[in-house]
Amino acid sequence: KKIRITPPFKPQLEEKLWFALFWMRPLRDFWRRALSDRHFDALKKVIPRTWILDPSPSPPHAELPELGIQSFQELSDFSQRERELVIKASGFSELAWGARSVVIGSDVPQPEWRDAVESALSAFDTQPHILQRFHKAAIFPHSVFDNESGDVLPFQAKVRLCPYYFADSKGVQLSGALATLCPPDKKILHGMRDAIL
Fold first, then answer.
1. Which of 52, 64, 95, 181 lies in disulfide reach of 89, CB 3.0 to 4.6 Å?
2. 3-state SS of 79-92?
């Protein structure tokens, strides 16, 4: 009891596999019973289409939904246009933050994409990975304060919003959000030297 951590570790909140569970066909009836139509439709709009990269074989007549393939190994052969996809490590892991495990298929050459797919599938038992559609972030104007000159300068940015919720005896409340503004040439949005928090 020498180490006190506030807030406590909540690895379940780091689990990106939750996204995939929402989209799994066998769980559709569960979600339809557990959620109102309005909430179900709202979640479909905000939860990205996600697959768990599982090396288990599928029956010969099966097809992975919306991918048109029978096994995730076939992802390796996708053309650059078909690779508007992103692979990420899931779970509470040193690989699952700061874009350490992120591979954007359309940005890497075929051999690197193949290696990423094979690596993710081979790590399934110890470090599961997910596959998601990659969506380009919008660019918008913002102004920033320049410490050196003291001027307010225009800045073109992509933004990542991270909401923060706090729980107490009254319930859970949205209590703020961290906006990370990244330069438009950055593909993966995360805290970095060039970002503004």
1. 95
2. CCCCCCEEEEECCC
